[in-house]
Amino acid sequence: MNFADAMNLGCACQTLETPRLQQQLETEPALAGLTARLAESHPHLFSRSAVFLDPGVMAQITDAVAALERVIALPAWQQQALDRAPQIARLDHGPAGVFMGYDFHLADGGPRLIEINSNAGGALLNAALARAHRACCEPFQQVFDPQDSLRQLDEVFVAMFRAEWRAQRGDAPLRSVLIVDDAPEAQYLAPEFQMARALFAAHGLTAVVADPRALQWRDGALWHPALPAGLPVDLVYNRLTDFYLQDSGHEALQQAYLAGAAVVTPHPRTHALYADKRNLIALSDAALLASWSVSEADRALLHRVVPATQRVSADNAEALWAQRRGLFFKPAAGFGARAAYRGDKLTRRVWTEILAGDYVAQTTVPPSERLVSVEGQTVRLKLDLRAYTYRGQVQLLAARTWAGQTTNFRTEGGGFSPVVVLPASVDLAVQPTVTAA
After folding, report:
1. Per-residue confidence (pLDDT) for residue 429, from 0 to 100
2. What is the mean pLDDT of residues 58-67?
3. pLDDT at residue 427, rounded to an integer
4. Average pLDDT rounded to a whole number, residues 76-98
5. d(CA 51, CA 416)
6. Residue 358, helix vs strand vs coil
7. Residue 360, H or E segment
């Protein structure tokens, strides 16, 4: 057990400062009252405890993301991924896709990749949360953000969107941004949409949160009635889970994307190349990777990081049922742990549904744990890590803590947690103690 593990399992200190959280969330008058509303409507969104991470594990995650990006960039990878995707995924307008999310569990031998998400939510909320945590004791004060990088994240995020714009539009001025999702006000992370709107506005952009059904495609441009007259939609920050824009209500957005009339990020190609769960099968197939000339070093790294994954079919159904206690079952096009099942909890009825669907079976990697304080009592919650990335660079690490079969925001004491990467050399005279400071 490294020192970070000892801290996670031995220190229940609560380091979230609510006044600082309010300051970080309510950055403009339109966001006033957001902290109180979140406390009422999303009581388990934010954990009051940080998660500690060993610097060696952080390096492993960074190396894994870089290796995964190298493989996904290969022509052979792209061909196999796009061959099974709808035709719209073959379009390549230039953008890479903002806020990629690589999700990991921490095993004894290091981080294990659980899945990749192409429109990972929560980055703005996690950045604000991380800035609101402060060390519970003086010896740890300087390890919470030693490079002062959290304060610069807003600029990093906006620069990412501008880079997406330039990849498709070059030096043309970016004027308007739409944050798009179905019934956005009803989405669980709707507060983050308002934060994104405020962030774009603070950087001189006209920004609107929009339902795609209000979009209009005419005269070779995409329009929304909330934008000033004569100003079309330049860039769409796409939070839809209709990854290939197939829903009839998304027709205007689809037409604009097909024509390249609006920059859409993330987009169908991103999902096909990264987030389709069937990609995990190829990533865990060393022989297939070797046939694509993936380097021996990258193959060895991916063998350590990516749990063995296989497609569920009638041919292997009997064997998978027999092995189910060591497997986790996920729909190929799933997201947010929806319709995902631990094999040791499967019933015959659910198994029948899995066989009728399009599922993959991944070797189970139990999540690590974090000790937290709940109403004066200490409890252990499961945790996973998410690396928010852009073009292979890790921008932010965040954790989620929960109890139950899959990740959720319903657990007392759980929710999003900031990740504190400990320095390589830690004064072991500082002993973790169970407290609820």
Report:
1. 43
2. 98
3. 52
4. 97
5. 10
6. coil
7. strand 359-363
Dig out the tokens for 163 from the structure.
Answer: 């880079």
Can you give 66-105 as a three-state secondary structure string? HHHHHHHCCHHHHHHHHHCCCHHHHCCCCCCCCCEEEEEE
Tokens of 10: 């031995």
Residue with tokens 């294990």: 112
Structure letter (DSSP) for residue 46: B
Helix (H, G, I), strand (E, B) or coil at 112: strand
Which ranges of 144-234 does DSSP label H, i.e. alpha helix?
Answer: 153-169, 190-202
Which secondary structure element, helix H or strand E, spans residue 136, and what is its range? none
C-alpha–C-alpha distance, residues 164 and 326, integer Å: 41
Q: In 3-state terms, what secondary structure has residue 435?
A: coil
Q: How confident is the model at residue 105 (pLDDT cuts 50, 70, 90)?
A: very high
Q: Tell me the three state secondary structure of residue 179.
A: strand
Buried b / exposed e across 196-233, counting CB within 10 Å, b at 16+?
bbbbbeebebbbbbbbbeebebeeeebbbeebeeeebb
Question: What average pLDDT is seen over the chain?
Answer: 93
Contact in structure between 379 and 369 (CB atoms under 8 Å)? no
The model's confidence at residue 407, banded by pLDDT at 50, 70 and 90, is confident
Could you give the dihedral angle defined by the CA atoms of residues 54, 59, 63 and 69, in that order, rounded to the nearest 10 degrees? Answer: 80
- Measured CA to CA, the distance from residue 352 to residue 2 in angstroms comes to 42
Does the predicted model carry a pTM greater than 0.85?
Answer: yes
